[in-house]
Amino acid sequence: MQFGIFSVGDVTPDPTTGRTPTEHERIKAMVAIARKAEEVGLDVFASGEHHNRPFVPSSPTTMLGHIAARTERLVLSTATTLITTNDPVKIAEDFAMLQHLADGRADLMLGRGNTGPVYPWFGKDIRDGIPLAVENYQLLHRLWREDVVDWEGRFRTPLQSFTSTPRPLDGVPPFVWHGSIRSPEIAEQAAYYGDGFFANNIFWPKEHFQRLIGLYRRRFEHYGHGTAEQAIVGLGGQVFMRANSQDAVREFRPYFDNAPVYGGGPSLEEFMAETPLTVGSPAQVIERTLRFRDHFGDYQRQLFLVDHAGLPLETVLEQIEILGEEVVPVLRREFAIGRPASVPDAPTHASLLAAKREKDTTEVAR
């Protein structure tokens, strides 16, 4: 399994001090968080994509390219790449470039986002969200696999004899996760292509995501990509930890109560009961995360949100240290116990390249 951090890049006031970081400070903090994730042995750093305040990551590939130059092992991903409002040609070229710069340590998660006004800002209609996601990915999928593409669709100008550049590294496109919190159509899309499905289960009860992941697994098998248990699943999570659970709750409560994404809704205790948010000791985080396998089956990628709601950078880096030193080593060991040999690891450039070479060799032998 892969374990890592994902950041939405919010610029939120610290309710305990009243101070709001500058955009520059927040951007630099995200870089520091990624480097810390590698330092403590995590596998993945993923950045969201937003084009509205209070968020800063409007150009994830720029940030991830910079992080690629300052890391050696970390897989660099997006937590959302807006397949609906970005031009699929630009996505194809930007992520192929990132893939080369990172020597293959790059993949991406496609999604529709959760900010309605972004659609008209980029000349799109939110009512076309699902059709845009379907059509744009059809084109993106071809651009990475065909050297010359002729294309005509509903939402963009036609292409004649077009080649996106650079071509994917080693002829292997970046691995794609389709992220969703509510749409069965996206689970279906991921299954159709044999791609990964990332259920960002940080806000809704587990039963909702059990239905989505179950649909994806069944349709993955239906389309002939493998058995349902071999489908590629990723999950989100939210944690805040201290050695003593009461200290964790006391420290995190003002952040929870005042953050725009939480404030005014359920209490912290209600939210923890209904979602994967775990505020407590490392042992409680381990226990809660291990239960994900009971709910969703064996899966390949676990990302944690730790840097939101105005938490200061120093505190976030402490959280990452706890994850790397106390939590993830136990999760790796426990998740490996009883994991069927048929369940694949998370795809990497190396594993995808090996599969491509094996396929090419088989075809030549025929």
TrEMBL record:
<dbReference type="InterPro" id="IPR023934">
    <property type="entry name" value="LLM_FMN-dep_put"/>
</dbReference>
<dbReference type="GO" id="GO:0005829">
    <property type="term" value="C:cytosol"/>
</dbReference>
<dbReference type="InterPro" id="IPR050766">
    <property type="entry name" value="Bact_Lucif_Oxidored"/>
</dbReference>
<keyword id="KW-0503">Monooxygenase</keyword>
<dbReference type="InterPro" id="IPR036661">
    <property type="entry name" value="Luciferase-like_sf"/>
</dbReference>
<dbReference type="Pfam" id="PF00296">
    <property type="entry name" value="Bac_luciferase"/>
</dbReference>
<dbReference type="InterPro" id="IPR011251">
    <property type="entry name" value="Luciferase-like_dom"/>
</dbReference>
<protein>
    <submittedName>
        <fullName>Putative FMN-dependent luciferase-like monooxygenase</fullName>
    </submittedName>
</protein>
<dbReference type="GO" id="GO:0016705">
    <property type="term" value="F:oxidoreductase activity, acting on paired donors, with incorporation or reduction of molecular oxygen"/>
</dbReference>
<dbReference type="GO" id="GO:0004497">
    <property type="term" value="F:monooxygenase activity"/>
</dbReference>
<keyword id="KW-0560">Oxidoreductase</keyword>
<feature type="domain" description="Luciferase-like">
    <location>
        <begin position="1"/>
        <end position="294"/>
    </location>
</feature>
